[in-house]
Amino acid sequence: MTPHQKKFFNTPDDNIAIRLTGLSKTYNAQGVSDKKNALENINLQIPAGCIFGLLGPNGAGKSTLINILAGTVIKSSGSVTVWGEDLDKNPRQCKANIGIVPQELNIDVFLTPYESLEFTAGMYNIPRHERQTRAILEMVGLTEQSHAYARTLSGGMRRRMLVAKAMVHSPPILILDEPTAGVDVALRQKLWENVRNLNDAGVTIVLTTHYLEEAEELCDHVAILNYGKVMVSKTKSDLLKSAGRKDLNVTIPENQKKQPLPANIKALNPILTSNGFIIRFNPEETSSGAILKKIGDAGFKIVDVSTYQPDLEDIFLDLTS
Ligand code: ADP
Ligand code: MG
């Protein structure tokens, strides 16, 4: 095991990969008197070993947060620790603990993927015998393209090339800002596979996205950011469970559709549909069975029922619109 690989297994004592405490950022727009809070008192803990999705509409502050971690934006206040290191006290170690895949597809068009990784390894002063250029290229599925001209690489390959570059110094944390923006569906799947493989190897993954499908598919933790504030941060399954609503869609016979609804059904605030009605309820308070019993007791024949539980997109819209 090389010293670089060892880091994967040295988890911080508190098992937190990234800890943000009271983090705020105000950009000083020149000539503009009202300052903008891009981030406002962010408290967030990203557990080591997870795939963490940072979601939010455009302008929510996702890139500002990532860029503070990358060291390209200076925070206004609050504290940041990365893999147990404080950003103010140990900025270099923080940087070493993170690999960042930027959103822009900037690659060195005059270098082959192999040369590009070797060059990056040189910049990190990684001794030749400790470099893992071939292994990294294999991990991102670019072995065949190792010696190809970079300009012949497709968009998806270029993105994977950037993932490879971010992993050259074997950081325990990999951060991807909008990794699949502009990447087509087939290549998106390939990239997700790479991300999963890295996570299986012990790398903590943080990604920002506005594709909810991506978060639903990949992430085990999700935080939703809006106007620079954390609206929610939970495991994905807790988030889906906590939505606090479920829809029961009831179809009734044709001849009962004109019948006025009795008071005990009206009390359930039904939404009328062409086939019957939908009753929205909180699964912590009642159940589909209890509601169906009330409907039956009120004299309705039930032709069909279906239930609908909100997905990540519904929750996202509830919290951000
Ligand atoms: P996101 O990545 O979620 O789309 P950003 O972090 O890019 O959001 O932006 C958050 C807010 O900060 C936005 O209102 C944006 O206009 C503002 N902002 C971002 N970068 C700068 C900057 N360099 N100068 C001034 N305002 C900025
Ligand atoms: Mg952004």
Can you describe this structure?
The structure is a single chain. This protein has 321 residues and is an alpha/beta fold. Helices cover 31% and strands 26% of the residues. The strands form 3 sheets. Strands 6-7-8-3-9-10 form a 6-stranded mixed β-sheet, with helices on both faces. A 4-stranded antiparallel β-sheet has the order 2-1-4-5. It has a 4-stranded antiparallel β-sheet with strand order 12-13-11-14, with no helix packed on it. The two termini are 49 Å apart. It binds adenosine-5'-diphosphate (ADP) and magnesium ion (MG). The site of magnesium ion (MG) has 2 residues, from helix 2.
Please give a quick description of this structure:
By secondary structure, the protein is an alpha/beta fold. 31% of the residues lie in helices and 26% in strands. Bound molecules: adenosine-5'-diphosphate (ADP) and magnesium ion.
Per-chain topology:
Elements: H1 3-6, E1 16-27, E2 36-47, E3 51-55, H2 62-70, E4 77-82, E5 85-86, H3 91-96, E6 98-101, H4 113-123, H5 133-139, H6 155-166, E7 173-177, H7 185-200, E8 204-209, H8 212-218, E9 221-226, E10 229-235, H9 236-241, E11 246-251, H10 263-266, E12 271-272, E13 276-281, H11 288-297, E14 304-308, H12 312-320
Parallel strand pairs: 3-8, 3-9, 6-7, 7-8
Antiparallel strand pairs: 1-2, 1-4, 4-5, 9-10, 11-13, 11-14, 12-13
The chain binds adenosine-5'-diphosphate and magnesium ion.
